[in-house]
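ok trying again, last paste got cut off:
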Amino acid sequence: MNPSVIRTLFRVVAFGEALSWLLLLAAMFCKWVLDAEPFGLEEGGVPVAGMVHGAGFFLLYVIMSVICFFVFRWNIKTGVIALLAAIPPFASIWFEKKAERDGLLTRRDTVRADTLA
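nice, full thing came through this time. structure:
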């Protein structure tokens, strides 16, 4: 697997997971707080938003976290934190930004030319 492709996919899925959380929270707000169906969907769109989030992006994020665990050789603690970041709303974006900043989305066995000097 190409680490660059895995990195890009992880970043896209992490953002999508957070966006699907926003969609689900907005649908729940419409259903229970506004008691409205703004999109003409049954129950304010909660079933649709729930499927997009749960069966779609949540599972994709978990799968991508496991793939990244092996491709980027994360330690157990990092892998667990990545998986736990799928649970609170928007935590996947926090983890992705932290992983990018800490260099966790690059292969550790790859030696860059600028580090050889």
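cool. The two ends are 28 Å apart (CA to CA). The first helix runs from residue 3 to 33.
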